[in-house]
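During the reporting period the student researcher (J.K.) took over the structure-prediction task from the postdoctoral fellow and processed the backlog of single-chain submissions. One of the processed entries is reproduced below for the supervisory committee.
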Amino acid sequence: DVSTASDLTPQERQVVALVRQGLANRDVAAQLFVSPRTVDFHLRNVFPKLGVTSRTELAALPLDL
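J.K. obtained the following structure tokens:
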């Protein structure tokens, strides 16, 4: 069961938007004032929600975030 971007939490949407811009976890963390482990946590939740298994697949999704 694949979710849509609207099913993501606000924090997950922020992380996804920055990752899709090509930022590394540490850079996403710095911009959002959280730890890199928090970014990793959000991505581990986002991947199954959106049916992807990598950052590359995430970036290729036609999402309007």
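The committee noted the following: The mean pLDDT is 91.
J.K. will present the remaining backlog at the next meeting.
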